[in-house]
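Data deposition worksheet. Section B asks for the primary sequence of the deposited chain exactly as it was used as input, without tags or linkers unless they were present during the calculation. Section C holds the resulting structure in token form. Section D is free text for depositor observations; keep each observation to a single sentence. Incomplete worksheets are returned to the depositor.
Section A, Depositor: J.P.
Section B:
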Amino acid sequence: MAEIAVTTVIDKLMSLVDEEARLLGGIHNQVEEIKIELLYIQAFLKDADAKTDTVDISHGLKTWIQDLRKTAYSMEDLIDEYMLHFANRNQNQNQNPRRWFFGFPGKVARSIQKLKPRHEMASKIQDIKKKIGKLKETGSSYVFITSSAEPESSSSTATAPWHDQRVTSLFVDETEIVGIDPQRNELITQLVEEGNPKRTVISVVGMGGLGKTTLTKKVYDNRRVVGHFDCHAWITVSQLFKMEELIRNMTKKFYQGRKEAVPDGIDTIDEMSLITLIRRYLQDKRYVVVFDDVWKLDFWGFIKYVLPENGKGSRIIITTRNDEVASCCIESSFDFIHKMQPLSPKSSWELFCKKTFQGGCPPELEKFSLDIVKRCGGLPLAIVTIGGLLSRKQNVREWENFSDNLGSELESNSRLQPINTILSLSYHDLPHYLKTCFLYLAIFPEDYTIKCANLTRLWIAEGFVKAKGGVTMGEIAEEFLIELIHRSLVQVSDVDLEGKIKSCHIHDLMREMILKKAEELSFCHVLAGEGPSFDGKSRRLSVHNSTNNILDTIDEKYSHVRSLFLFNSEMIFTKTLASKLKLVKVLDLKDSPIQSVPEDLGNLFHLKYLSLRNTRVKILPKSMGKLRNLQTLDLKHSLIEELPVEINKLPKLRHILAYNYNFDVEFSSASVKGVHVKEGISSLENLQKLCFVEANHGADVIIELGKLRQLRKLGITKLTRENGQPLCASITNMNHLKSLSISSSTEDEILDLQHLSDPPPCISRLELYGRLDKLPDWISKLKSLVKLGLWKSRFGHDPMEVLGALPNLLELELLETHGIEQICFEAIGFQKLKVLRMCGLMELKKVKMENGALPQLEELEIGPSSKLEEVPHGISYLRKLKTLSFRDMPEEFKLSLIPGRGRNYGTVEHIPNVFFYQRLSGQHYTVQMAETIQSPLLAAEFFQATVGQSKICQA
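Section C:
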């Protein structure tokens, strides 16, 4: 982490030297010298950071690294304060030019103002230079500062603990294994399958501690497997290995496993001779080999040439934490990936009780036991290790104390060291840029679902993401997140139909590990509840569940806070905001009860990310125009209705997110509410997301939107008919646009959108709220369209022929569309559609689905449609349909679907889940008819039996 701190400073110094030389004056050379010194030290910090994570690091080396990190932070503070000073001076100069430029006194005053901060900075720089010089001199006494830099992975120098936890995994007793029988049986079947003579690779993937090694060993030792193959070898690979030694070891194990003499001279022959030997030996044998704990992406790319494809049905098993390692092994349809999942809550409880109590849990310990098992998150290693420790504790108070302090126990209790060791291996293997991104997740509360779009914007604001030609920083940040997921460090919570990750989370124990590390490194500090006040050392402050005013806990003399986050916490703004948080880059105040923000908000020169989401704030101060570095302005679900014209002065602004959804107004143009923006918005040339903007304040703003050529997402509300043509003209210029949402000013206002003859080619999501008398011709040109929503249209004809030809459409919503009596899904239509919603089509009488249409459909929702008497004809063709929902349908229609008795039951019998949504007091109650549509209950009995247990679902 010292490397991260130094890298941040070097980036700032380079920017300062290259772009801000005019501000540095006489201290330019000194800043350049510091940059060179830091670049020298940076080359060796990769090794130093890895050493800090091992148990054998000397106290002196650890202290050296800590001092270097503090010195780097001091340099960063100095640069930021210097830039803040000149930003404030320029603001004052612009506000009152006569004071600065009128006459000789003004020139003298300006010269003095320039010289004073430069003199102060020069003095501080001299101190920092001396510190860096001493650190370099001291560091030369350590081996790492005089040796050459190590390879890319920071784990390459990590020293293993005194024993390898993976070794003990090979000898786990059957009585300590729970819930793996189905997985074991599946893998055994894959190994001994006679119908596949090809050499096949089976990759077992999952996070550390899930039991990959244990499962694979039980499969490897199975009698069916042992008897099926001519020779066997188990190789533990790990992060540190030499390929030649690995091949030599594997060769010996093959010979020894068959009780054959190992060839003479095997320890001295070269790598090519080894490969020739092993290939010749295996050529006529059916072999199985396990490579346990593979980290390198290119591992299979080499080892596959060592293991011959001999048509004997040989098998290779690879265990890894990294999805990408597994993907690199897929070369034929026979190769496959087995993704290990955490134990179910039931299996977790069974394993915990077996290990801890050798039976049932005492009632007085059940509450604490359940909490501990939950936090283990289905991780067998954690359950067994913690269970073994707790088996010696009988006192209820001891259990309560352990449960309340699990994080500190993981850090300090030597008996829990295996958990930390296994979990931290993946962290240590990360390159420095991913370590920063991963540590950042410590700011979020336990069990928190993280929105991926917000997370990547935060990473960018923090400076973790560097620009590359041809791709946006947002796309690079998404790649970082995907890599963390592939490495089994971050877990996916939700994905959209395209497979894009919408939200994610981290394992509770992994969070405990990085939380301690983040606080250790002054990277982040979490204040939970009414705990102790902030010590001022950390760069980031995250406040959870606190009613204290956080500003009162920050001492402006010692605060170096760059980021402040509130989670279910309060803040009372005072006039000291800019002084206490003067260097802040991220201010995330979402969900807090604040009602206003102070005028001096604009003095936060370094601010890049501001979130007032779901607050009661109504007005933004005009001083916002001074936030020249602001990238993201998140006002979702706040009470702000108008953006000050000063917003248009922010050249780096990329995201304006400002809208409200009214969930009480169903399928209405009033269900989404935007903000009023002022003329001059065209100056925000870097804007990528703008949603939602009111379009009923004249055509000038609509025309200006055409100059925002970097837009990826645009939302328009209150569009009038006369502004339809200028909006189409503006959209034509947005070649990067991917998401477009337009709603009319009223339900009867016509959306005049026929003028868009050449739509942006990348549009993948399109939502149109309002009256469309005709489906716009240009929609048929949207070959990348994935999701389409049409509300309040009045086609008077079936649009499915046109929509069915869209080659990549996955989701279609027709809501409150008028004038359609019949809909026909032709045999060649909608070949990729997965979700179809037809709600509020009150004239609809008949729906027909031809054989071959909608082959991928998984979810279908219909209603209210009072004239529809039959379920869609041909619905029996939809063999992949998983969920069929009916919304507010007549009672007679419900009766036709009585399981086993209704006239329409046979046509939906193959669908696993059928639901009715019935509006009750403004809400919808979901009533499941039956899990498998086999209940013999009569409709009246069924509804009486299930309504009381139904799940409330927002309309």
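Section D:
The chain has 32 helices and 31 strands.
The chain has a mean pLDDT of 84.
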